[in-house]
Amino acid sequence: MPKAVAIKGPAGKPGQVYYEFDKITIPEPQPKDSEVVVKLLSAALNHRDLFIRQNLYPGTTFGVPLLADGCGIVVKTGSSQEAKRWQGKRVIINPGIGWKDDLEGPEDPQGYKIMGGTKVYPKGTLAEFITLEAGEVEEAPEHLSNIEASALPLAGLTAWRATITKSGNAKPGRNILITGIGGGVALMALMFAAAADARVYVSSGSEEKIEQAKKLGATGGINYKEKDWDKKLRAMLPKDRPLLDAIIDGAGGDVVDKGVRLLRVCSVHPRIKCFNAGVISLTIH
Length: 285
Ligand SMILES: NC(=O)c1ccc[n+]([C@@H]2O[C@H](COP(=O)([O-])OP(=O)(O)OC[C@H]3O[C@@H](n4cnc5c(N)ncnc54)[C@H](OP(=O)(O)O)[C@@H]3O)[C@@H](O)[C@H]2O)c1
Hints:
The chain has helices at 47-53, 81-84, 146-150, 153-166, 184-195, 207-215, 229-236, 255-260, and strands at residues 3-8, 20-25, 35-44, 69-77, 90-93, 96-97, 113-114, 129-133, 137-139, 175-178, 199-204, 220-223, 246-249, 279-281.
C-alpha cells in the first residue's frame, strides 16, 4: 500500500499543541474515468502547514496527507479522453477546489477548499500518490525543477491574483509596496511585479531580508518596526511619481492607516483613494 504523512493526536488546544507526524497508508490508487493518478516527485511547504501542526488552521484533522503543493508524473489515468491525455506528463497540482476561472472569486458557494491535512478537502501531496480530477493538474513548466514547480501553485496563485489580477498595477514605472517580504506570498509577488518592470518597494522586520529582496529586483525597502517607516518610504519614491500605485499586503498592522496616505488618488473617482490602486489584503482571496 502507498505511504503518506499526516498528523496524529491526542487533540490539543489551538496554539498550545504541536502535533506529531504520522506515517499512514493510503488506498491503492484506482482512478475513476475522469481522474489521473500522480506519482509525487516533490512537495512544498507553506506557512499553513506549520499552523496545521499547531491546530491553528480551520478544518485541521488527523489521518489526512499533509501539504497542498506538489509536482509529479501522471502514472495512471481513467478512461476519458481528457484524463488519458495526461499519461506520462510532468504536472503541478491545483492545491484547491471550488474555484475554476471566475475573476470575482470562487464559484462554489462553499468557497475555495485547500487540500493537505484538513477535513474540507481530504487529500494532500505529502504522499507517494495522489488521485485527482484531470482538470486539477497543469503541465509543469519545463524550465522549473521539480522542487521549484511544486513551490509555485498556492503562494504563486495568491500572489498572482493580488499583484496582477486585482491590483492591475504590475506595469512599467508603477510604484508597488509589498509588505512583509519575508513571507512566501510576498516573495512571489515581488518576483511577478519586478518581472513586469514595476518599481517595487518592500517592508520587513529584517534588514537582511530587505537586502535579499533588492537582489530579487526590489528598488528599496523599509523596516516596518520603525515608527516613521512611512516617511522613509515617501522619501524613497521618485519625484515624477511620488505616490504608491498599489500596496500588496498580507500582514495588516499599521499599513492600512499609514499606507493609505501614500496611495495616489484614483483618476476615476478623484475624491477617494481608489481601491483599484488600494490596499490589497491577501487574507481575502
Ligand atoms: N501562503 C499562501 O499560500 C496563502 C494563500 C492564501 C492567502 N494567504 C494569506 O497571505 C498572507 C501571507 O501569507 P504567507 O504564507 O506568505 O505568510 P508568511 O510566510 O507567514 O509571511 C508573513 C510575513 O508577514 C510579515 N509581517 C509580520 N508582521 C508584520 C507587520 N507588522 N507589518 C508588515 N509585515 C509583517 C513578516 O515579514 P518579514 O519576515 O519580512 O518581517 C512575515 O514573514 C496571510 O494573510 C495568509 O493568510 C497565504
